[in-house]
Amino acid sequence: QVKLVESGGGSVQAGGSLRLSCVVSGLSYSDHCMGWFRQTPGKEREGVATIDGGGSTSYTDSVRGRFTISKDNAKSTLYLQMNSLKPEDTAKYLCTTYRSYYCPTSTTSENLWGQGTQVIVSS
After folding, report:
1. Which of 27, 37, 79, 82 has the most Cβ atoms closer than 10 angstroms to its Cβ?
2. Do 100 and 41 contact (CB within 8 A), yes or no?
3. Which residues contact 74 (CB under 8 A, 6 or more apart)?
4. Which is nearest to 80 in space by CA: 122, 35, 44, 115?
5. 112, 96 contact by CB (below 8 A)
6. pLDDT tens digits for 75-115?
């Protein structure tokens, strides 16, 4: 059974940093596109960053230059380093794994999700 467990969320002041982690089990981790999404109440889930099986990354415009997605295949762990945080980054952050090696433009019903970790950025 595939399981994704996020951690590292918390409360931070604007301008601060957090590093989120997502431990993946039950999956050939390195062969799949992985990603981070975020969600706030009343809004659609928003894609933040993805990393494909070869390590190529992609970011949404609002976080590019501030956030860095990475993975440690030996530890089966996905990371999201978040710097220069802004109040608008406040959300629940979820990691997901895709079925494919390369990252498609949208998620499907085959995506697997963690439970999420809450990030709160105060001004």
Report:
1. 82
2. no
3. none
4. 35
5. yes
6. 999 999 999 999 999 999 999 999 899 999 888 888 999 99
